[in-house]
Structures are given as structure tokens and as C-alpha cells.
Amino acid sequence: MNLEIDPEILSSILKEVEQRKRAIKEGKIKPPWIEYPDYEPYCLGWRMGSGEDYIDDWYGFIKNLDRNKLKKYFDKYNIPKEWKPRLKKYIIIKGE
Q1: Is 14 inside any structural domain?
Q2: Distance (Å, rounded) from C-alpha 67 to C-alpha 72?
Q3: What's the alpha-carbon Rg for the chain, to the nearest Å?
Q4: 94: left (phi > 0), else alpha (psi -120 to 50), else beta?
Q5: DSSP classification of residue 29
Q6: Which residue among 35, 65, 74, 93 is least crowded, i.e. fewest CB within 10 A of its CB?
Q7: Which of 57, 77, 65 is nearest to 17 (CA)?
Q8: Residue 51 lies in a domain
Q9: What is the pTM of this model?
Q10: Which helix (H) or strand (E) covers residue 45, if one does?
Q11: pLDDT tens per residue across span 58-94
Q12: What domain range includes position 47?
């Protein structure tokens, strides 16, 4: 079987991957609820769709932040209430 990949599509994918790597390195990767606003926290798109690689990279990013940087990150990007249960292992939510 001979598969041909459209060079424009491949170029676009590689560009997206490089941009995400750069955003992670610079600490500028946006949280998934901003990058994929139509995806709910437990949407199948995080496991088998276009958000799968993104959320894996994002979790890797936040896991490597120290507590102070993690707090600043989540202060900058307000966590929607529907995302809080999914993120409880990474954050301490006041009043809960």
C-alpha cells in the first residue's frame, strides 16, 4: 500500500506542532477550554479527536509547573466550573 500525503497538509501539521512546542517552552500554551471552547471537559474529542494531542501536551506542561507558577497560570486563565472536577488533582479550589 502506497500512501501519499499532501505536502500542504503535512506542512500545516508540522507548523502546528512546532508552534505548540514553542508555546509550551515559553509557558504560553493556552488551557484547553480556551483553545477548544466547543469541547466539554470529558468530550470524546480529547481522547480520539483533534484535541487529543493538545490536551496531552497541556497536561505535560501543567504537571511540570511548580505550585507558584501553577497558581499564577490558573489565576490568569479562569477555570470554568465544568472543568474544576477534571482538574482537582492539579489545583486546590477554595470553598470545595
Answers
A1: no
A2: 9
A3: 16
A4: beta
A5: P
A6: 93
A7: 57
A8: yes
A9: 0.76
A10: helix 45-48
A11: 998 998 888 888 889 989 998 999 999 888 876 655 4
A12: 32-96
